[in-house]
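Milestone 3.1: sequence recovery, worked example.
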């Protein structure tokens, strides 16, 4: 390696390491924990054009997805959240989530890969016309809310598109002090499973489930 190549190599690694450092030092206040790396890995592997997130809060998941898009040098995340009071805000105050999200995206150099849509999912779905490669659903966790998100956006999933739901294993951990009886995501994802949708559930960080449409799976061979 000559000196120019060495410097280019060094610069490449510094630009990769810095956002990860900012990720580890940011104030995100999220329940998703290290499972956000699953989203990062999916984005690196799928190399999506379009990713949608419902429920961004302070940006823990958005930054993992955005970082992977930046590493792909390709694609865009549409990060949907009203950033106001809902029944499903994490701690830290609803008013603070938008400035925190913007601060985190800026600190990690992800603004070019993440478009913030300040709206609830119903409003954001109006006029939506893009095919979706990956959707992360982590917004309104009531049964009606999560079902509405699936009904609104799953028709846009590509043939091999993936939907990821967070908070899908609460019913296995009813003794957890954070348990909420109005959490409808586990029951909704179980309904999808019963309807024949392919579902893979990971019992970590309150549960993540990966779902592919349509029910019964889609034969990929002609
Ligand atoms: C649990 S937090 C999301 C956490 C985030 N994904 C993370 O990794 O830190 C839920 C978020 O969903 C948002 N939300 C609630 N109802 C929503 C809706 N109908 N559409 C979009 N976002 C919604 C709330 O404002 C809140 O910020």
């Amino acid at each position: 390696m000559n000196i120019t190549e060495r410097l280019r190599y060094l610069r490449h690694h510094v630009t990769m390491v810095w956002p990860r450092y900012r990720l580890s030092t940011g104030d995100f206040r999220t329940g998703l924990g290290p499972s956000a790396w699953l989203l990062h890995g999916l984005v690196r592997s799928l190399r999506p054009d379009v990713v949608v997130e419902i429920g961004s809060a302070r940006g823990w998941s958005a930054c993992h997805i955005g970082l992977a898009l930046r590493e792909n040098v390709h694609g865009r995340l549409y990060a949907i959240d009203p950033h106001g009071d809902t029944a499903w805000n994490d701690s830290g105050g609803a008013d603070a989530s938008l400035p925190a999200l913007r601060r985190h995206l800026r600190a990690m150099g992800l603004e070019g890969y993440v478009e913030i849509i300040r709206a609830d999912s119903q409003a954001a779905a109006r006029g939506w016309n893009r095919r979706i490669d990956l959707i992360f659903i982590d917004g309104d966790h009531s049964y009606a809310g999560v079902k509405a998100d699936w009904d609104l956006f799953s028709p846009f999933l590509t043939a091999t598109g993936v939907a990821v739901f967070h908070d899908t294993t609460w019913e296995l951990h009813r003794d957890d002090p954070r348990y909420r009886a109005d959490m409808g995501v586990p029951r909704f994802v179980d309904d999808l499973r019963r309807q024949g949708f392919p579902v893979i559930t990971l019992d970590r960080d309150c549960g993540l489930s990966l779902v592919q449409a349509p029910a019964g799976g889609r034969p990929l061979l002609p």
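The chain has a mean pLDDT of 94. Helices lie at 3-25, 36-46, 60-72, 97-107, 121-125, 143-153, 185-194.
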